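Most newcomers find our protein records easier to grasp once they have seen one. The structure tokens are whole numbers drawn from a learned vocabulary of backbone shapes. The record below serves as our worked example for the rest of this section.
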Amino acid sequence: MDITFPKAIQALFARELEANLRAKIELENARTIIATTRALKNAAAIIKDDKEMKFLQVMELLQNAVKTGKNTLNVSEILAE
């Protein structure tokens, strides 16, 4: 036994299905963004006090200073952190 609905009702069903799918996609995107943000926060916390990361920051600062031709360089702020 087949049941057919009028076109207007079929269109309502289609719009509701589409809205549900979009809501699920948006929820999954939000979850992905939150997970990525947490991972970045955790990574930042890990490297914040890492001496090797500070050394790499100083080296990057020195490389940039050499490229720009600056004669005076103050690294005390990075080293003090």
